[in-house]
Design a protein that fits this description.
Length: about 550
């Protein structure tokens, strides 16, 4: 059988071209050889065999020579024995590896090497493959640093060679091959993990920076965005949370962790202000996992802890928030010499929502006095005055509360804008406080025009607009509680609001529970009207 063309084709598959020297050598093999079927069956694995031999720190040319030599030896053996090669050799692939390795181990058949020849031949990178080439060269460099006895087993497993075949080619026990593989993996865990960590860090930093940049374009306030934009930011925040949870704690370096944590804290604060406390809590919890790998306490670390505590507080977990804030306050005092005013503000708010009015009152008075001496903290002072005004309403000092809110609204109108969400929020709290005090007529005068503004600025389905709509209904019923039409309209409105809040936040969210209490109160009002009884008492609010 004329097998020379077939052998030349097999060698060409290995070397990428016909090796003239091997063609010359092939002429010494008798033409009666019966081995082409075996060789053609093995031709698909020739390139893997060349790369396997090349991993022994030999040049590409020597590896090709060794594989070609092994193929010729197989043909000679088949011709000499006069029987099927598969019957003579139980595992042909392992036999060829042993023959090829023995060939390269013989120094007489090794040509002088250059550093370039030792590197694996990589195809010319096409468009968009530059990063892949860099990573491949890095992995190759890491593999070259492994001891030869470990690298041999690892390379074999990379090309799906069984442990038994590796053991046979290296003349060792299969269990020893497995032990070497475990040791090789352990040696590579550090260098390769650094490379993966660097790539992950860049991706996460870019993801956080993109989201923070989008938020910054709107003044850092989600409430100034349209409904679709807020949904987009919420979806990206969820994706970021999943990314952070998918990254093992400690994967980022100290500086990268500081950047990520700082920007996540800003986003979490914006989510809390936009009444999406659950998303803020989940995102902050995903970021807090990476805090312990910072080299020293930082403002970014304190800020994300504060954002997490605020989210818990707004979700009604006031005791949990208090515990976190007290620990944070102590750490800030140890690090900066004094607690951050924002931490103190949130702590006093958590105390108030637990019914500890005396402690909260003393804290707010001291805080507002402290902030009044800091002109740079004017907006934080106005925020503290808002919280203090709400406490005054809870203490029954309604007129003092209204005066404080009016002062805050005037200051925010001058400093921010009439339609800024913070200005509108102060107006809502003022009207809501009057409704809780039973002064429905005064509350309705304030809340009715405010609802139109909030619906126009923030959208009629925004949580802030829904809250204003709810207390507008309550104020109207307080004014006209004998009017069944007003009560029925309010009941229908609050039922729709509760449905939206439950789907958005869940039934246990403070806003949902508050709406549910007012629905029960409206039922009592309808019963009182049927019996011509007095107006039922106002339900005690739970938190805000």
């Amino acid at each position: 059988m004329d097998w020379e063309p077939l052998l030349a084709a097999v060698i060409g598959a290995v070397t990428g071209g016909v090796d003239r020297r091997l063609q010359d050598r092939s002429q010494r093999v008798p033409p009666s050889v019966e081995g082409p079927e075996v060789l053609s069956e093995f031709s698909d694995g020739c390139e893997s065999l060349v790369r396997f031999v090349q991993s022994r720190r030999v040049s590409r040319a020597d590896a090709e020579d060794a594989v070609s030599h092994a193929l010729l030896r197989a043909c000679e053996k088949a011709n000499r024995e006069g029987e099927d090669l598969g019957a003579q050799i139980q595992n042909l692939q392992a036999w060829l590896r042993v023959v090829a390795l023995n060939r390269v181990r013989d120094p007489r058949h090794r040509r002088p090497e250059s550093p370039v020849e030792r590197l694996p031949d990589l195809a010319a990178p096409g468009l968009g493959h530059g990063d892949l080439v860099v990573e491949a060269l890095y992995v190759a460099a890491v593999l070259r640093r492994l001891p030869p006895h470990l690298r041999q087993v690892l390379i074999g497993r990379m090309y799906h060679v069984s442990y038994d075949e590796i053991a046979e080619s290296l003349d060792i026990e299969p269990q020893l091959a497995r032990n070497r593989m475990r040791l090789a993996r352990h040696r590579l865990r550090g260098p390769l993990a650094v490379r993966v960590r660097r790539a992950d860090t860049v991706g996460v930093v870019e993801q956080v920076a993109s989201l923070a940049g989008h938020l910054s374009a709107h003044g850092g306030d989600l409430r100034t965005m349209g409904h679709e934009e807020r949904l987009e930011v919420g979806a990206k925040a969820t994706e970021l949370r999943r990314t952070l949870l998918g990254c093992r704690a400690g994967r980022f370096g100290a500086e990268e962790s500081k950047i990520i944590v700082g920007k996540v804290a800003v986003l979490a604060e914006a989510l809390v202000a936009d009444r999406d406390e659950r998303a803020a809590r989940d995102l902050a919890r995903a970021a807090v996992r990476h805090l312990r790998f910072l080299r020293s306490p930082s403002t970014e670390a304190f800020r994300i802890r504060r954002a997490l505590a605020e989210a818990w507080s707004e979700l009604g977990e006031h005791q949990r928030a208090e515990k976190l804030l007290r620990a944070l306050s102590l750490d800030e005092q140890n690090h900066f010499g004094a607690a951050d005013p924002r931490t103190e503000l949130l702590l006093h708010w958590a105390l108030m929502n637990q019914g500890r009015f005396t402690e909260a009152e003393a804290g707010f008075v001291a805080l507002t006095s402290r902030l009044g001496a800091l002109p740079a903290r004017k907006q934080l002072l106005l925020h503290a005055l808002c919280r203090h005004a709400w406490l005054l309403g809870r203490l029954g000092r309604t007129e003092e509360s209204v005066r404080t809110y009016t002062r805050v609204i005037s200051s925010r109108t001058l400093a921010l804008d009439t339609y800024h969400p913070d200005t509108l929020d102060a107006g809502h709290s003022r009207g809501k406080g009057l409704a809780l005090d039973g002064q429905g007529e005064r509350a309705f005068v304030l809340l009715d025009p405010l609802l139109d503004v909030r619906a126009r600025v923030q959208g009629d389905r925004h949580p802030d607009a829904l809250e204003t709509a709810k207390y507008r209904h309550i104020a109207r019923v307080q004014t006209e509680f004998r009017d069944d039409r007003a009560v029925i309209e309010a009941f229908g409105g609050l039922t729709e609001i509760l449905d939206v809040q439950t789907r958005r936040h869940g039934a246990r969210h403070p806003a949902s529970r508050d709406t549910d209490r007012w629905l029960a109160w409206l039922q009592d009002v309808r019963g009182a009207n049927r019996l011509r009884g007095p107006l039922p008492p106002i339900p005690i609010p739970d938190g805000v």
